[in-house]
Amino acid sequence: MGLKTAGPGSISSGPVQAAAQGGEVAVAKAEKTAFDVKLEKFDAGAKIKIIKEVRSFTELGLKEAKDLVEKAPCVVKNGVKKEEGEGIVEKLKQLGATVALE
Taking every annotated instance into account, which residue ranges of this chain make up the domain Large ribosomal subunit protein bL12 C-terminal (predicted)? Predict the structure, then answer.
């Protein structure tokens, strides 16, 4: 009755485990739904316009928005959807700010 035994190198779960781990990473990245808009720096000449824009998408008063903008780099909006965040980033970039969506 000739049963053959498998040698030590004939059974490998390496590629299967690697594929499973890669799938988990892709799922983790896809699940991110909340983003932060970070004001990195801005053109001093556009400061007033940037403060007005920050006020338009936050519920901050003039003084609070001014203080927030002046302490750049800082997060100006937390937990936004990607589409909303991209819109904010685009508006601030048009005004002369350097902004990141994190």
Answer: 35-101
Q: Is residue 13 part of a domain?
A: no
Residue 21 has pLDDT above 80, yes or no: no
What totals of helices (H) and strands (E) does the chain contain, helices first? 4, 3
Asked if residue 9 belongs to a domain, the reply is: no
Which of the two residues, 73 and 11, has the higher pLDDT score? 73
Looking at the 3D structure of the chain, how many domains does it have? 1
Distance CA(93)–CA(89), nearest Å, equals 6
Report the C-alpha gap between 80 and 100 in whole angstroms: 13
Cβ neighbours for 15, distance < 8 A, ≥ 6 positions apart: none
- pLDDT confidence tier of residue 14, bands split at 50, 70 and 90: low
- pTM, full prediction: 0.66
Q: How far apart are CA 12 and CA 25, in angstroms?
A: 22
The whole domain housing 71 covers 33-101
